[in-house]
Specification:
With about 210 residues, the chain is mainly α. It is globular, with a radius of gyration of 24 Å.
Length: about 210
Amino acid sequence: MAVGLSRYRRIWRIHIAAGCALTVIGATAIAAAAAQPGGGGSAKDPLRLFAPMMPVFSHPRCSNCHGAVDVLAGVNHDQLEKSDVPLNDDGDMLSGQDGNAKCRECHDEDEQNSVWRLAPRSKTFAGKDVKSLCTELVDVNGLTDPARRADFLQHLTSDQLIGFAFEGRRGMVDNDQQQPPMDRPTFVNLARRWLDEGKARCSGVERHHDPDH
């Protein structure tokens, strides 16, 4: 009788251990799926659809052009170099190639066609958390309008300077690559999901993110 009871206890322990193992495996699989670029968040939590893009938005190849560099004051510019570039009435660099000849002396990739310039001050990424950056992008780009969402996605897909950012060379032919932590197609797919499923909203619980500068 004692032998039978002991055998029953061993079998019971095995079943309990197996159940715990399956629970751990299941939880791990769910966590891994949520960590995948297409797996985090849902349409009911748009901020969690936006959050996976933050490692790109906060990367120096993006944030430097969006607020982290001030060429006029030499802030975070190569060797603290000050560049006397012409500005418009809002204090932003001129659009297109107007006035950026000095920039192209160093940022010489595709020099004849490059529109190298800093982003307008209204489009600053540097120092923003997930929700504040999400809100800024929606407001500045008018993303409550579905037509503007299509324009925004096209901008992410085809803009020349964004392409330079994903190459990671700061628009310089001879320069070490410091690429963002994902490629451009992956980033665009994340943006498309936020725009389509999340309707470019910023509601939901913020996911904490530590920018890697």
